[in-house]
Design brief:
alpha+beta; Alpha-D-Glucose-1,6-Bisphosphate, Chain A, domain 4; seven-stranded antiparallel β-sheet; 7 strands; Polyketide_cyclase/dehydratase; Polyketide cyclase
């Protein structure tokens, strides 16, 4: 967690009370993808498809839309890392940034993605800050667990985007 804090990105719009400072669990992950940020964006907002390519996402259901695609007012439920989460979009800027709250028993989190177009490829920065007893438990039981899970998410996103 300390390495992730040292590398945190200064252009994430953190909501009040959920910034990395004082978080019980924080991760910073990034990847360069040889695809446009628009291609990456389309994969990220197709949330109900995540389980087909990201093994830590299960039973994703957008609650206020039937298209399976996230939008600026979306609320969705899903299971990740064995935790049932209710999420709500906080920030939605097409092809550039998306962030959502994640609420679960003993956990309040904010998950942010920042997409930067750099020389015809997409630099993806993902950060998550979490608070609560469940976040403390995750940190204590496997200090690198969420970081590894997010590396996997980025790796699978890269693989899929570069095939398009």
């Amino acid at each position: 967690m300390d390495d992730d804090l040292a590398n945190r990105f200064d252009d994430i719009h953190w909501p009040d009370g959920l910034s990395p400072e004082g978080a019980d669990l924080f991760t910073h992950n990034e990847v360069f993808i040889d695809a446009s940020c628009s291609t990456v964006w389309q994969l990220l907002i197709a949330a109900e498809q995540w389980p087909q390519w990201y093994p830590n996402a299960h039973d994703v259901q957008i609650l206020n839309d039937r298209t399976g695609v996230l939008r600026e007012d979306s609320r969705f439920q899903w299971t990740t890392l064995g935790i049932d989460v209710l999420s709500e979009i906080f920030e939605f800027v097409p092809d550039t940034r998306i962030g959502w709250y994640g609420n679960a028993v003993g956990l309040r989190a904010y998950h942010a993605w920042r997409l930067l177009d750099e020389s015809n490829r997409c630099h993806v920065i993902m950060e998550e800050a979490a608070r609560g007893p469940a976040a403390v438990g995750m940190r204590n039981s496997d200090p690198d667990g969420m970081h590894k899970a997010h590396d996997l998410w980025n790796d699978r996103l890269k693989l899929l985007a570069e095939r398009r």
